[in-house]
Amino acid sequence: MADPRISHIELDDATILWRNADIEQERRIAIFDLIEDNVFRPVRAAGAGHEGPYRLRLSVRDGRLSLEIAGDDGTELETLVLGLARFRRPIREYFAICESYYQAIRKASPQEIETIDMARRGVHNDAAEMLLERLEGKIETDHPTARRLFTLICVLHIRG
């Protein structure tokens, strides 16, 4: 029976050079939400008879995103490599807005926090749409899954 979803996700810890409590919280929430509810169907693997669930490992190497996809039993199925040049600006914007958001939570009015959060969601939504475009024909997924994957891509880009 087909189960096109991610059952386990792992980030390459060697890629993450710097962490703080806010980033760790974002990472934990994104992974929890992703595992709880996602749509993920690698087209090539599904065409070869693998219908999920899948294990996913994300890493960044030489400026490229590597998505290592395995079956639920750990059998390697395929690795997708995506260029990240188009994501540099959204990642930078997302980091800047997140930093403003974290500062605002500590000292701004509820209205200011909501304004910053709306901007953050806008950048996040646009980046998720871009990710969906890049995955087209490779992985069938939905917008909420792409949003959570973008959050994890950002975590992999933290340099401190």
Topology (elements, then pairings):
Blueprint: E1 6-11, H1 21-36, E2 40-42, H2 43-47, E3 54-61, E4 64-71, E5 76-83, H3 88-107, H4 110-135, E6 139-141, H5 143-156
Parallel strand pairs: 1-3
Antiparallel strand pairs: 2-6, 3-4, 4-5
Helix pairs in contact: 1-5, 3-4, 4-5
What would your notes on this structure say?
The protein has helices at 21-36, 43-47, 88-107, 110-135, 143-156, and strands at residues 6-11, 40-42, 54-61, 64-71, 76-83, 139-141. It has 160 residues and is an alpha+beta fold. Strand 3 (54-61) and strand 4 form a beta hairpin. Helix 4 (110-135) packs across helix 5. The strands form two sheets. The chain has a four-stranded mixed β-sheet. Strands 2-6 form a two-stranded antiparallel ribbon.
The secondary structure category is alpha+beta
% residues in beta strands:
15-25%
Euclidean distance between termini CA atoms: 44 Å
Helix content: 40-55%
- Multimeric state: single chain
How many H/I helical runs? Answer: 5
> Taking strands numbered 1, 2, ... along the chain, how are they ordered across the largest sheet?
1-3-4-5
* Average pLDDT score: 89
Quantity of strands, as a count: 6
Radius of gyration: 16 Å
The general outline is elongated
* Low-pLDDT stretches: none
**What's the order of the H and E elements?**
EHEHEEEHHEH
Largest sheet: number of strands, sense, barrel closure: 4 strands, mixed
